[in-house]
Amino acid sequence: MAINFAHRRTLRAFITLYSIMSIFILALLGVLYYRYKSEISLANHRLAMQLQAEVYIPRVVRWIQGDDLLFPKDPAYKSAFFMDSEVVAGELDLHFVDLRPDIHKEKNIVYLVINMGSYGLKNGVVILQTIDDKLWLKEYLKTASLLGGVLFLLLFSLGVWLSRLFLRPMRDVVKMLDDFIKDTTHELNTPVTTILTNVELINRDDLDQKSAKKLDRIRVASRAIETLYDDLTYLLLGKKIVRKDEVLHIEEMILERCEYFGIHIQMKRLKIRLDNRANLVVLMDKKRAQRVIDNLLNNAIKYADRGSIITIKIDKSSLSIHNTGATIQPEQLKQIFRRYVRADESKGGFGIGLHIVNTIAQHYGIKIDVASDSDGTEFVLHFESITTNPQESNFT
Fold first, then answer.
1. pLDDT for 126-147, tens place per residue?
2. Is pLDDT of 111 > 90?
3. Cα-flanking dihedrals φ and ψ of residue 307, to 5°?
4. Which of 55, 124, 139, 320: disulfide with 116, CB 3.0–4.6 Å?
C-alpha cells in the first residue's frame, strides 16, 4: 500500500530520532569502552614496570650507597632519580612530571613513579618511562568499528520494525480513507451523471423566478459535485491516464472555466477582473491543465468574500489568481498542498484539490508561489518550462 506524505514524514522523523539516539548510545558505549581499554593498557604497563622495578631498584640503591660510580640504566625503560623534587640523575623525555607515586600518562608517554621511602630515602623517587605504542588503540578501533556497526544495524532494524508497529494505526486510517474515497467515487458516478444531464435539459426561461433560483442552486451544487468527482477520479486514476500534451491557450481555458462556474460566481455576487491578457501558450495535457485551473478558480470562488472581486492576471509565462477573503496563516501555507489538508475546515471538501494542483505542477516543472495577507490570497503559476511560441502552434 502506498504510504501518504504524513505517514512518510512521521516515519522519517521517527527513524531520524531513533538513529540519533542509537548513535548517541553507541558513542557513549564507545567512550566507556575506550576508557576501559586505556585503563587496561595502563594496568599492563604498571605490572610490567613494577616487575622490572624489582630488578632495577636494587641497582639504584647500590648507586646511592656509592657501590657503583655511574647511575644505572635500565635496559627496558628510561629512568631517573629525583630527590626533593629535583632530578639528580638519569634522563626523561618529559620536562615536567607528576612525582606522586603511581602510574601516569602524558600524551603518548607512560611513566611509573616509585617512592624510595622503604629504602631510607623519604624524599626520593625513581621514575621508569616508556612510550605507549598505541597497539591497544588499534585493537580498540577495530573492535569498536566492527561491534559498533553490527549493533547499529541491529538497533536500526529494530527501529524500523518498531516504527512500522507504532505507525500501523496511521496506515490503517489512511487505507480506510483511501478506500472510502474509492467507494465514494464509484457511488457518485451514476447519480452525478444523472443530475447533470437532467439539470442541463431544464430550460430556465420556462420557470418562474422562484423556481429559477432553485434551479440555479441545483446547478451550483451539481457543478461542485462534478468538480469533486473529477478530482477524485484524477486522484485515483491520474497515474494511469496517458498524458497527451497539446498546445493550450490559457486565456481561452480561463474564460471557458469562468463560464462553467458562472452560476456560482453570480450567486456569491462576485466579479471576475481579467488583467494583462497576454497570449500565454503552453504545451500541456488538457485534462491536467483543466484540473489545475478548476481547483484554483474554485478555491478562489469558495474562499472569496461575498460581493468581492477575483483578479486574474495572465502574463507571457505566468498565471495569477487573487481573491479577497480570510488570510491563510504562514504555518498553514506550508501545508496546503498536502493531501487531505484544508486551510479552512468549515468550507468542507476532502482537501485534495491543491494536492492535485501541486502534483501536476511538479510533473510539468511549474513553479507555484502563494501569498496571503490582509489584502487577500494569490496563487501564481510560472509556466516558463512549458511555454511555447504561439506563432509556431496550430491553434486557430
1. 999 999 988 889 999 999 999 9
2. yes
3. 80, 10
4. 124
CA terminus-to-terminus distance, the chain: 46
Provide φ and ψ at 137, rounded to 5°: -70, -40
Q: How far apart are CA 211 and CA 203, in angstroms?
A: 11
Contact 40, 135 (CB under 8 A): no
Q: What is the mean pLDDT of the chain?
A: 84
- Return the CATH fold of 243-396: Heat Shock Protein 90 (3.30.565)
- The 10s digit of each residue's pLDDT in 228-271 is 777 777 777 666 667 788 999 999 999 988 988 888 898 899 99
> Apex CA 327: angle with CA 258 and CA 263, to 5°?
20
Q: pTM (2 decimals)?
A: 0.54
Exposed/middle/buried for 103, CB within 10 Å: 0-12, 13-18, 19+? middle
The answer to whether 249 touches 281, Cβ cutoff 8 Å, is yes
- In 3D space, the residue among 285, 280, 287 whose CA is nearest the CA of residue 251 turns out to be 280
* Helices and strands counted in the chain (H then E): 9, 12
Would you kindly state where each structural domain of the chain is located, as residue ranges? 6-136, 169-241, 243-396
DSSP letter assigned to residue 311 = E
Taking only Cα atoms into account, the Rg of the chain, rounded to an integer number of angstroms, comes to 41
Instruction: For 305-352, write each residue's pLDDT tens digit.
Output: 999 999 999 998 999 999 998 888 888 887 888 876 766 655 556 678
Residue 326 grid cell: 480570510
282 DSSP β-pair partners: 248, 387
CB burial of 201-220 (b: ≥16 within 10 Å; e: otherwise) equals eeeeeeeeeeeeeebbeebb
Percent of the chain with pLDDT over 90: 35
